[in-house]
Design a protein that fits this description.
The protein is mainly α. The protein contains eight helices and no strands.
Length: about 160
């Protein structure tokens, strides 16, 4: 709840934040396993999903469920996918139209956020972005809208 009450620019969810929370929970309660708790909630909610890809993703799904953002345990990847589809549809329906190369980049960013919760400019020099020219490649496609798109995706996909 504290995270979601932060003002807009201070509420960016980062990999480090989730990792710090997980480390705090496991140091305070050495037997804590997010996947075990996730499986208990899966039974309570009477839903069946594939297990999260890792403990940190399980923790994010649990937090979203516990504070009422999601009414039932929901796979984080599906939340990011749905938010991305809504965002892209709104953009394509407005003035800004993305071409196929741009959409490929945007999908790579979406996939990165689904696994790492946040995208930093420096991440664009890592796989898979480096194969497409890294930050320079994105800049060639999006120009001075690059930073705004990164910020917007970081905000909208994890909402």
């Amino acid at each position: 709840q504290i995270f979601y009450s932060y003002e807009h620019r201070r509420r960016e969810l980062t990999y480090k934040m989730i990792q710090d929370l997980y480390e705090k929970l496991t140091s305070d309660c050495p037997g804590f396993k997010a996947l075990r708790l996730w499986q208990a909630y899966e039974g309570l909610d009477k839903v069946s999903h594939d297990n999260p890809k890792n403990e940190l993703i399980a923790l994010v799904e649990l937090v979203r469920r516990a504070i009422g953002i999601d009414q039932a345990l929901t796979p984080y990847e599906k939340t990011v996918d749905k938010n991305f589809q809504n965002w892209a549809f709104q953009k394509q329906a407005g003035k800004l139209k993305f071409n196929e190369q741009q959409m490929e980049w945007l999908r790579m960013i979406k996939d990165h956020i689904a696994m790492s919760f946040h995208l930093e400019r420096e991440d664009l020099d890592l796989t898979p972005f480096d194969a497409k020219g890294g930050l320079g490649g994105m800049w060639q496609l999006f120009g001075d809208k690059t930073d705004g798109i990164i910020d917007e995706l970081n905000d909208r996909l994890v909402a």
